[in-house]
Every structure is written in structure tokens, then in C-alpha cells.
Amino acid sequence: MSEQTRQIKLEAGILPGVSTGTIKKIIKAGITTVEALATLNPRDLKDDASMGLDTSENAIKAAIDLTENGFITGNELWDRRKLRTRLSTGSRAVDEIMRSQQDIENDKRGGFESETTTEIAAGNGVGKTQLCHQLAVIAQLPIPEGGLDGEVVWVDTENTFIPGRIDQICKARGYDTEGFLDKIHHGLALNTPHQGMLIEKLYSYCPEHNIKLIIVDSLMGLLRSEYIGRGTLSARQDELKTMLLTLAKVARSTKTTVIYTNQIMDDPGSMYANASKATGGNVMGHAATTRIWLRKGRAGSRVFKINKSPYLDELEATFIITENGIEDTEDNIKRWSKMEEEQ
Ligand code: ADP
Ligand code: MG
Questions:
Q1: What is the architecture of the domain spanning 1-70?
Q2: To test ligand 1's pocket by mutation, which of 119, 120, 124, 130 has the most ligand atoms within 8 angstroms of CB?
Q3: Which CATH class is domain 84-338?
């Protein structure tokens, strides 16, 4: 296993001062790596693994020590950051705006960054689920080809995952559909608590199955249909906050790329005409490392806009959805070939 995917399996004797019985209880609660343990809150672990608060605190502290989650120098942090991978979208135009100055200097591609979370927000029918299908295929490719060299989890809340679409995308590229479908682990969330359970399971499921990409399509779908009316807002936001926090911790501790979709709604409260906003309010707005907005563009194209990122400019790129998946527009392809001719 390469350095960037290395994880320490939780087992008896691995954590100084933590008994075998305690380790067994933690594993039984679904935590199977030291990295995942290090991200937990002692009060949650106490409840989930039925143990005393002292025991829970002690175990988490030992995990933090072992994974060197104390202070490190800026240079050490920089070296760790360089190990993050980037998942290509399959569109050169989109990958280019997702490429940081750092990536260019390190001769890396652009794309969705591992160990972080990305929200993709768009109105109905714009192409969120289509993009997710494409990413579920690309993630399985080797890293030099823009993939993550791993398997995929798809948490489906709207029952919109289509194996036949994976077949089209694979066939267009000459890949073996069966092999790719075998590496997509599909979980249909039946209701909000079930969605929460599936997400919680990822701490142990990801390292066990070499999962490198987690898709949640869509994060808010069930929450919005189950919590209706003003009085339920605070309970809904609590549920949402827990899921978002877990996804961020899973991304970090299992070194996966996490992508979740969100809906965009009309905003009648805005002072601007035709204003719209992503659902989930501030809890959602502040959670993802990177926020992407998709919208319909000219002549059936789609516009991919970086709305928030710690280091990417807020740029836009255009792509199209075809039989083959997500592709570059004719205009962009012509422009690049002209540029290459001129060189
Ligand atoms: P959402 O953002 O609601 O998840 P989808 O990802 O389901 O939207 O996108 C649906 C749109 O994708 C359709 O309206 C259609 O324009 C486009 N689309 C789906 N399949 C194909 C295909 N095989 N070829 C071209 N366009 C497609
Ligand atoms: Mg969809």
C-alpha cells in the first residue's frame, strides 16, 4: 500500500495503555483503524461502544498520539499535503480550473481533492447525478490517469444510480463494465436515520474495501422530505450537521475523496430577481472544503463554477453531457487544437 493510503489497523496491543477488552468494544462499534478512532469525540465513543468516559478519552488520546496528530511543522504538513490525490472529471476544461498553482508546480492534474469534501449544488436535471456516474468510473483508474486507484461507495437517497449508465460510460472508453460495477458499492438509504447509519459505517467500510471515492447523491433529499415545516428545522439541521461532520472525518481518516450533491432552490427572500440558493442553510454552506455550482449553459452545455475553495480561483468551465458521459465542448476542443498547432 502506498504512503498516501497507509492506515493502522486497530488491534490488541497497538495502543499503549488501552486494554484488549476496550479495543474489542471499539471495533464492535465499527471503528477499525487508529486514524478513525483519533477523529472521534469521547462522548460519542462512550455511548457507541458502551464504555466509561475515562476509557473512551484514554483510547482516543492514545490514537491521537500514535497517528502523530499533535503539532507538526509547516514543512511536514506541506509534505503530507503533497500526498493528496486528485480525481479527474474527464473534462479537460473542468480539470484545468480545478488545478491549483501547487498542482502545476508538482506536475499534478486538477480535480477533486482527496481527504476533503466537495459539495456539488445544482437545480433539478442539471447533471449532478450524471457527473457522479462518470466519477464512479474514473475513480477506479490508476492515479496517473486521473483516477484514485480504488473502489467507490455510492450512498443513494433518491434511487437514481443507473448501472446501465455506468455500462455506457465504460463501453465508450473500452473498459469492462462488469469489473467496474463490481467496485461500486451501492447503498440505498431508506430514511434519514438509515442514511446516517450508512455514513457512520464508512469509517470501517472504506479501509476494508479500498474505497477511495464516496458519493452521497443527494445529501439533503431525505432530510428535506422527512422534516417538513418550520418547527422541525433545528432537528433537521442537527442531523445534517452530524452527517457533514462524519463525512469530513471519514475523508480525513480514511484518505478518501468525498463528494455530495445538493439542490438549488429559488430564494424568494432575496433582494435580487431570480435569486437561488443551495439547501441546508449555513450548516451546509460552511461544511464542504470546496463548493461547486452547476447550471445549464448555452446550446445544452453545462457550466461548472467553483464557488468556494481554499486555494482555487472562482472560475467557470463548460462541459457537455453525452452518451459517453461528461465531455468537453466542441468549442473547447477546437480551441485547444488551434493552440497546439500554433505552438
Ligand atoms: P440532477 O442534477 O437532477 O441529478 P441528472 O444528473 O439526472 O440531474 O441530469 C439529467 C440530465 O442529464 C438530463 O436532463 C439530460 O439532459 C442529461 N442526460 C442524461 N443522460 C444522457 C445521455 N445519455 N446523453 C445526453 N444527455 C444525458
Ligand atoms: Mg440527481
A1: Orthogonal Bundle (1.10)
A2: 130
A3: alpha beta
